[in-house]
């Protein structure tokens, strides 16, 4: 899976550079998020602007990250959701769980 | 003019084929002469339901055995589109996961069948030739 991680003033930003976040590759994102949390990261921002498809496994990994962040008094925020991805969040009501922003900059301003 | 399409695909029981199968469904939506709705949306929905159905077959019904196969048949008529996904494993308890209501958003699993049910008009899971078949129908007319 093509992931790029950058630190921005205490927030770790993961750029998910994949067209699909699904049962085939989403475990790799889970491993990366766990690695960052284990190494002391509290606040994670996921940029999903390249992702045009997400399935229930991909959503499950994001929920896992959300719960992991919560137990560590941290946070996980999302940005760059394409229309189809947004509709999956709405269908599963996850848009009520996550803080979702248009862009990385907009999300970073919220911390 | 004839509008019937029948596609049969067999892939190894591995998640690396999810993208291929999903895209076949998405592309099909753009070729349906009889469909008057939004083809973009239909294509996205077919991509999702094929992916979810395949994952159910691969991980749950076929217990992630990479030597097994998943067989998919897509049938299109003027009235509807029928997707059948066959597994040759022990199956899964469809009733346990067939809730019509949205699962708790904080659950990490258990959304697949809910998503399929939400995007298709009818969904059934039954025995077939020593294995099982998940049948998902979408009205086109």
Task: Describe the model.
- The complex is a heterodimer of chains A (111) and B (141).
- Chain A has 111 residues and is of the alpha/beta class.
- Chain A has a single domain (3-100), classed as Transcription Regulator spoIIAA (2-Layer Sandwich).
- Helix content of chain A is 40%, strand content 26%.
- Chain A contains four helices and seven strands, in the order βββαββαβαβα.
- Chain A has helices at residues 26-38, 56-71, 83-91, 104-109, and strands spanning 3-8, 11-16, 20-21, 43-47, 53-54, 75-79, 99-101.
- In chain A, strands 1-2-4-6-7 form a five-stranded mixed β-sheet.
- In chain A, a hairpin with a 2-residue loop joins strand 1 and strand 2 (11-16).
- Chain A is globular and about 30 Å long.
- The model of chain A has no long low-confidence stretch (mean pLDDT 97).
- Chain B has three helices and five strands, in the order E-H-H-E-E-H-E-E.
- In chain B, strands 1-2-3-5-4 form a five-stranded antiparallel β-sheet.
- Chain B has helices at 18-29, 39-61, 112-119; strands spanning 5-12, 69-76, 80-87, 122-128, 131-139.
- Chain B is of the alpha+beta class.
- In chain B, helix 1 (18-29) runs antiparallel to helix 2 and helix 2 packs antiparallel against helix 3 (112-119).
- Chain B has a single domain (5-139), classed as Heat Shock Protein 90.
- Chain B is 30% helix and 28% strand.
- Classes of the chains: A alpha/beta (111), B alpha+beta (141).
- The interface between A and B is medium-sized, with 25 and 26 residues.
